[in-house]
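Deliverable D4.2, example record:
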Amino acid sequence: MQRFIDLANQMKDEGVPVNVVSWSLMTASGIYSTYSVTGNSGGLNPSGIDKVADAYKQNLTNIQALKKAQDEQKKAGN
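Output generated by the structure prediction step:
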C-alpha cells in the first residue's frame, strides 16, 4: 500500500493535481479489481460491480473509522 501512496505523492510533487492523482488511482484499482475477478475475459456483471463497490465502501468506512480514532487519540494526548 505504501508504494501506491509514495507514487501518488511523487505524482503530486510533479505537479499533477491531487484530484487527478486520486481519480487515476481509483481508475487503476477498478481496472485491476475487474481483472482479479474476471481475468482477461471480459468485465463484471451488475452483481459483480455491486460486490466490488460494496468492498470499496466497506474499506473506505474502515479507513475513516481508523482516522477518526487516531484523531481522537491525538486530541486526548494533548
